[in-house]
Structure formats: C-alpha cells, structure tokens
Amino acid sequence: MAVNYSKEMMCAPRQQLEWGFGGRRKLRDGALLMALFLGGIGAGQFVVSTWLIDYKLSAVIGLLFVAVGKSVAHLIYLGRPERFLRLFMRPKTSWISRGLIAMIALVVFGAAYLAPYYGFGWLPWDAGSDLGRVILGIAVVAAFVVMVYDGFVLASCKSITSWHTMLMPVMFFTYSIAGGVAMTALTSLLGKGLSSVAVDVDTLVSLDSLLLGAMIAFVVFYVINLATSDTTAKESLRTLLMRRTAIVFIGLAILAGLLVPMALALFHQMGAVAAIANVLLGASALLELCGDISVRHSILKAGLHAPVF
Fold first, then answer.
1. Which fold has domain 20-305?
2. DSSP state of 247
C-alpha cells in the first residue's frame, strides 16, 4: 500500500514546500519571501532615488531595506549564520551567490556614494565628481543584479515548470523598480520635514503608470505561458486562479496591486488638486507594495514539481 501510494504521488505534480509562507517550516520559510520582497524594493528605491531623481534620504532607506531587511530575512530562513556564508562560494555557477555578492557590493558602494552627505564630507568624492559617478555606477549595476537575480534563481529550477521561464527575471525586475517608485513616493510624503528635496509628484506618477502597464502585460503573458505549457504548468495556473491562492493572486496582486493603482494614476493625471493628489499617490503606493509581495507569494505558492513518471 505504501509503495503504491508513493508511486501515485510521484506520478502527480507536487507543491514545493520550501519557499514562502505555508512551507514545512512555517514562518522560517516565509522569511525567504520577505527577503525577495525587501531586497527588490530596496534596490529599486536606491536606483530610483539616485539614478532617476536626486533624493538621498530615500536612497538611504532603500539601502537599509537591503542591508538590514534582506540580510536578516535570509538569516532567519537559513537558521544558522554559517549557511549564509556558504552561499557566497559559487558565483560561477549559482545565481544565489551572484545575487548575494551584488547585495554586498550595493550596500558598500551605495553607502560610499551617500557618505559625503551624511557627516563624511572629508571624503575625496561627491555626486558631481568623476569618482563619485564611478562609485554610483557600480552601486546601480549591483542594484540591477539584486533586482533580477531572484528571478534567475527561480527560472533555473527546471523541475518547476511555472518558474522555468525567462519571464521570471523580467517580472521581478519590473516589480522591484515599481516598488522602488512606490517607496520613494511614500518617503517623499512622510519625510517632508526630514529633507528639503522637493520630489516632482507628476514625474513619479508618470513613471508609475508606465511600470503598471508593463506589470499588467507581464502578468497576462505569464498566465498565457502557463495556459499553453505542460500539464504541471496548467495545474499551477489552476492553483493561481481557482484555489485559495486565487484570493491573493486575483484579489491582491491583480485587483488591489495593479488595476486600482492604475485607475488612481489615471485620475491623478486628469488633474486632481494637490491635496487629493498626495492622498492618491500614497494610496497607490501602498496598494502597489501590497501587490508586489502578493505576486511574489503567488508565484512561490504556484510552484509545482513536475511528476517523476
């Protein structure tokens, strides 16, 4: 009986139970989802706040998300610090190693770039110097790697069809940049007394609208990809659309995280008054962050191992 049951299990798709909330280790497995989320929005916030606009307070907050939030979440997931160190040892073959090395580079070079503005004015560079631009360039490249590497890690899992697609790094990158825009918007709204920088709300909303359109398109492509792939991928699609995960995927990731923010952005662009515009921007940013973590959670939950037989 046990042998027959085992064979039956091996002939059916099996849900992965190692990554994300609801795994075998409960909250510890959920810490990995938090690492993906915090690392993505932190790197995105740093890029948006240094490369696209000049808002150094927001860039510092983005670095803290990566340096503290992502690192602590990884340590909770792994359980022992020595395991964390071992992950750095295979950069030639492992996207996990490449991503973690990029994370360290982002924190080191990002902090070096911002240091002259926070009590280290004696350093021989600033934002306008050639050396400062080189340091920023390295930090931005590292941030790009941090934003995409989680997607490459998932795409390299050949046994999980719903992850084994190049849409993963593209989606993770787009969601990370959009999360960075959302965090920059929230920082500008909540940190007005802490910084004299005036962030152009219209610029943020325009950029956000483009990213929302891209994210909607990628989610549609992802669903079509699952629907036209093998039986395991189609079972993953059923998990996303017809089981408990549908509440998170359809309700939070799509409706609350994409469609409502897009409607709010369009309303803002139609000419909302300043007071309402700030409320709309804050609401849209919070909903997008909710959608970001929800879509990552949904992708992890829909991960099914293909049958052995």
1. Formate dehydrogenase/DMSO reductase fold (1.20.1630)
2. I
